[in-house]
Amino acid sequence: MILMLISRFWNNWKSALVIVKPETVTRWHRKGFKIYWRWNSRKTGRPTIDWELPVLDNHSSFWLTINIEYITEAFDKKKQVKFGQKSETLMKFKNINKRTVKHYKFIEGLTNPIVEALKYQECFERKGVSTKAEVGEILGVSRARVVQYLNLLKLPNPIIDFMLENHENKRICQFFTERRLRPLTQIEDKIQCLEKFHILLDEKKGGDMVFSVVQQ
After folding, report:
1. CA distance 143 to 130
2. If you compute the radius of gyration of the chain from its CA atoms, what whole number of angstroms results?
3. Alpha helix (H) residue ranges in the chain
4. Is 181 exposed, middle or buried (0-12, 13-18, 19+ CB in 10 A)?
């Protein structure tokens, strides 16, 4: 059937005819179908990432916490993590580039800095954690970052209350990052600190953001 169709369009088809075994034709057919099926079944969209439970034997591995609400469980299983046993709170990316890390890492400004500072404080106050450097090692951040976030808890209570009340407001979290609040921690006078915070609110042009300060 195939030869009949070819002969209609190609008169010299006999010159290119090669006699082969039936097994060879079958092998060619299987190979061609395999190539076609692989092409037809290819994955579309962004490629998936292989997730694995942590084994701390590779310093180039990148770590993320699954859920910050459950991060405290890591302390109860700290020894397990160090010895490479299974942990329910930490995962690692395997064989990924910097672009992938940048895409999947936590974006600064989308997390409430006060909420994160409270998590750091909770970790620091837990039994068995004695230094800020140890907290940073467990959470996968630097000691300086831990210190900077803990300093935010020294802000006046009205500012902390405002940030906690708006912890789900993405506009607030994106504007009031740790870097933006950091200079306020260096102001010892409470009234001046609140005034500076009001100035930042004016810059944000809050509109719907209402902040009432009770000066004590």
Report:
1. 13
2. 30
3. 2-9, 22-40, 73-76, 78-82, 98-104, 113-125, 132-139, 143-151, 157-165, 170-175, 178-181, 190-204
4. buried
In CATH, the number for domain 111-216 is 1.10.10.2830
Predicted pLDDT of residue 20: 65
- What does the angle CA 129 – CA 86 – CA 80 come to, to the nearest 5 degrees? 35
Looking at residue 105, what DSSP letter applies?
A: S
Mean pLDDT computed over 3-16:
69
Beta bridge partners of 51: 93
- Going by C-beta distance under 8 Å and a sequence separation of 6 or more, which residues neighbour residue 94? 50, 52, 61
When pLDDT is averaged across residues 30-49 and rounded to a whole number, the result is 69
Instruction: Give the residue extent of every domain in the chain.
Output: 47-105, 111-216
Q: What is the pLDDT of residues 63-84, one digit of tens each?
A: 443 333 333 444 444 444 444 4
Give the pair of three-digit tokens for residue 3: 């030869």
